[in-house]
Design brief:
seven-stranded mixed beta sheet, about 20% helix, binds fe (ii) ion
């Protein structure tokens, strides 16, 4: 039995209740009722050697999973490292990938591991040249195949600033053993940086913060950015009154530091920040609402066309649209204040996207940026988006915005748009059931307590 056959057998064993029509598409929800839960994973792999915190202070991460692999990453002071990847096998773990002597460039190594079994738990570790000292042990799951039929558990947050130092809010992420963990922007607040070394300093700081380090090591990360990874309210073009212009050179330095810090694949547009990732019955559409703005447009025409066409063509039962800034129209509460920093300020593009999102079944927006947690309707009653939900996740650590205080002054008809508003540090846990076509949303606070729980039918 060769390795490929072992992997194929593992994959077959791991795949849960595949679609029954042979098309690769999930079965129709009405056929199945609630989808099954993910089977349990083995207890954590006991990796040999000892964690060298000095050499591997900045942790490990996996990113942008595929059905047969993921990007795996570490940042280290070692000149070279070995990589060992283990796959769940019954109650234990079996080695499925090993690479030796990987060159570390600018303290970073990112490896595109492929040939793995689908929908399978993996653990991985980077080992120093002496073979004894190692990184922390990371975990990720390869993506379920398109016709896999089970519930998918996804975590999301945003805005990891200094309002709650040490980011205790993220302590409860790793125990959730997520299928994917979404970082929706403002992972660092690198304002004032100019050179790549300036930006790297901020990324090193967050990467060595224990709750962040544990969270990104615990599940495949899918990330986008907002403004503070470059500069507060930055633009490459002619700045408006509230914007700060950055040069193309500074932009390149910030992008380099981002790519060194978060493992992510290049998207179809070449900018790399918008792309789609399929997780069985769920498809993640990662938007870039920051890097392609121009007068009157929050995204490029190319990105909007891709998003619209992708939603229309998707065979996934549930489509999560990941956006750094809110899609919700807050006009009734905030009027035009800061509208240019969310989709509300770009009505032509917002209307075009929402028209499709209303027509295509199973669309849910997941966003960050505004420093309050919420489950809200994208549009006011009777308006475009009134039947669409948005989960506002985070902030994980940034200063809080007392949106609930403002909202309390609004009329009841206005408040009806907001199902839950939370003024505390949080991350969102979402259990997507493609069978019932529901998303159980929980907002988890800095003590690990579920402070909002709501079942959405989408
Ligand atoms: Fe923020």
């Amino acid at each position: 039995v060769n390795r490929r056959e072992v992997l194929a057998a593992l994959g077959a064993a791991a795949a849960v209740g595949c679609g029954k029509d042979g098309t690769g598409n999930p079965p129709e929800p009405t056929d199945d009722g609630p989808a099954p839960e993910r089977p349990p994973e083995p207890p954590p792999w006991a990796a040999p050697g000892a964690w060298d915190e000095a050499a591997f202070a900045w942790g490990v991460a996996a990113g942008d999973p595929l059905v047969d692999g993921a990007l795996v990453w570490t940042r280290t002071t070692e000149p070279t490292v070995d990589l060992v990847v283990m796959a769940a096998d019954g109650d234990g773990w079996v080695e499925v990938h090993r690479a030796t002597g990987l060159e570390v460039v600018d303290e970073v190594v990112t490896i595109d591991v492929s040939g793995l079994a689908p929908d399978t738990a993996h653990q991985y570790v980077f080992v120093a040249p002496d073979g004894a000292r190692r990184s922390l042990v990371g975990r990720f799951r390869t993506a379920p195949p398109a016709d896999a039929w089970r519930r998918i558990t996804i975590g999301a947050t945003s805005c990891l600033g200094s309002g709650d130092p040490g980011l205790p809010c993220l302590d409860s992420v790793a125990p959730a053993a997520l299928d994917a963990f979404l970082l929706l922007g403002d992972t660092v607040y690198a304002d004032g940086s100019v050179t790549v070394d300036d930006y790297r300093a901020f990324w090193r700081e967050v990467a060595s913060t224990p709750p962040y380090r544990a969270a990104v090591a615990s599940a495949a990360v899918v990330a986008t950015w907002d403004d503070h990874e470059v500069e507060n309210n930055w633009t490459l073009g002619e700045p408006s009154r509230t914007q700060t212009r950055v040069s193309p050179a500074q932009y390149d330095e910030a992008v380099q530091a981002f790519r060194e810090a978060i493992p992510m694949r290049l998207g179809p547009g070449g900018s790399g920040f918008w792309r789609a990732i399929r997780l069985g019955p769920v498809e993640l559409f990662v938007a870039d609402s920051r890097g392609e703005r121009s007068p009157g447009k929050i995204v490029s025409d190319e990105q909007l066309d891709w998003l619209v066409a992708g939603l229309e063509a998707s065979t996934a039962t549930v489509k999560l649209v990941l956006v750094s800034v809110h899609m919700t129209d807050h006009a009734a509460v905030m009027g035009p204040v800061q509208a240019e920093d969310r989709w509300q300020g770009y009505p032509a593009q917002r209307d075009a996207l929402l028209a499709v999102a209303e027509r295509v079944p199973g669309v849910l927006f997941v966003t960050g940026d505004m420093h309050f947690g919420a489950i809200q309707k994208v549009g006011a009653a009777g308006a475009l988006g009134a039947e669409l939900f948005e989960i506002a996740a985070g902030p994980a650590g940034s200063s809080l915005f007392a949106f609930d205080t403002i909202l309390a002054l609004a009329e009841e008809s206005v408040r009806a748009q907001y199902l839950d508003v939370l003024e505390t540090w949080n991350w969102a846990r979402m259990v997507v059931d493609p069978g019932a076509r529901t998303v159980q949303v929980e907002l988890v606070d800095r003590d690990g307590a579920v402070v909002v729980s709501r079942l959405l039918t989408i």
